[in-house]
Amino acid sequence: MLNYVWIALVVIGVLAAAGSDIYDASTNRYRNGQEFEVQYNSLSSNEGTISFTKEYFDRFYGTSIESSDTVSFPVVVAHDSANIILGEEAPGIWRTIAKTAGNERRLGATIRKRSGNHLFIILPITSLVRTKAVLDAIISYSSLAVTISLALIGVMAFWLGIMKLGEDSGLINIIARAMKPIMVRVFPDIPPDHPAIGAMIMNIAANMLGLNNAATPLGLKAMDELEKLNPNKGTASNAMITFLAINTGGLTIIPATAIAIRAALGSKDPTVILMTSFFGAGLATIAGVLAAKILQRLKIYRIESTPQTNKAEEK
Question: For the whole model, what pTM was predicted?
Answer without folding.
Answer: 0.53
